[in-house]
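I wish you would study the pair of lines that follows with an eye to the fold:

===
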Amino acid sequence: MNKYDDIVVGSGISGLTTALILGMNKRKVLLLEKAPTIGGSLSRFYKKGIPFDTGFHFSGGFSKDTVLSDMLSVLSINDDIQPEFITSPENNRFIFENNKESFMFSPGFNQNMQNMLDYFPDEIKAITTYFSKVKEIREKTTAMNIRSEVEMQKFSDDDFITLKDKLNSLTDNNTLKTLLSAFSMCHGTEPGQISFANHARVSYSIYESIARVKNGGHSFIKALLKKLKKYDVDIRKNTFISSCEDIEKRKVGTFVLNNGDQIKAENCIFTIHPEEILKTFKEENTSKAFSDRVKDFEESFGLFICFLKFSKKGQKPFDPGIITLYPDNDMNKFFDSAFKGDRPLVMVQNSENVKKEKVSVINAFELTYWDEVKQWADTTTGKRNKEYELYKKNKTERICERIITSFPEYKNCIEVIDSASMLTFRDYLNSPYGSAYGIKQKIGQFNLLGRVQYKNTFAAGQSSILPGVLGAMVSGFTICRYLLSKEKYAAFIKKELKE
């Protein structure tokens, strides 16, 4: 029987981060991945020789002296991750399709605020109040400081008011409210359900800077796998825990894998979706309170993505850019799963090296919900019917039509390389519903973080603290801060940051 100090389940960014921190602290670690490849939504795929991103398209927080910078430094991969900043306001744009209004923003927190003030000179109080509150909330969030000791987050009044209500208290201008809630697309929860504080925690780093990463999420995977090898972390693909056995005094004695192997471990950290954790524990062996808690979680929205190649004679390769199309300025209705009509569409533009040539690509993704595809839930990729294929065809054509309407110069220059629905993401990423951000970050909700169900089983991941690369990595640091002694963790951080 194999023995480990720690088992880490899931090889997305949170699992890779957690496994590496534990390995760097001389613990014997086993990393398990259910899929045949490592990386989860960080992974890229190739079609017609062109690399496309699966789930990681851009991130905030790459500025110096930020929590992301600190985490990359601690993991010793900061030199391997090369951000490609969006520097031109033209490439950081929001367009309202109904009236052709366009709003462009310069990089930097203060610059974003100033741009808002320039566009809405009659809304000085609303804008300055919003941005000062966002900054205050982020600075007071202890989880976003990897140097801090283990302590409960102190909640403020802004943790108990929704983003929607906060914005309504500041202004009646619907266009301004839509722009201030724009980064709801980066956490997947509607303004009427997420707290203003959590929206601020996600948005702050994106206001600071937005960047793609050279070679996409693959650069994270490559860098972290290299470090995991250095610290002798065992990695198994196509492998998951099928059951928890020999439970005594609420502690799992043996973790049984799907191939029959039996593993002893001091701790097991799950960085996967809460529903997948519940399946591992088996509902009949869990407390009703834990089972009900997981079942009460709601899924964030999903994405329908078109992977496009852009070719135009004489056109220079795309610089990194993110352009968001809004059908109109009623942000809240787009988050209603029953809404029929166009929803926000994000165009992530960049260029990729293909056979020593630069190829311009667009990842165009539209907000969507499970209700759109649940009629085909019992099917699998490659074995779906004509109705599903027609659904994808119609969605793809409409997305391309919207892009060309806003950018007429793109007509006859776009080639559809592939597309993906929530079902595609479900099947490839082993996510129950293929949602973009796991569970919703609802106001007043206690997510799964830290010890769950048994004394030696723990939860981390993007459904724990905040979604996205930043939030998922922070959850890894948070759980390791808990598992290692306070003194050992503090000494580790100090050493790696060379303080």
About this structure: The first strand starts at residue 2 and ends at 9.
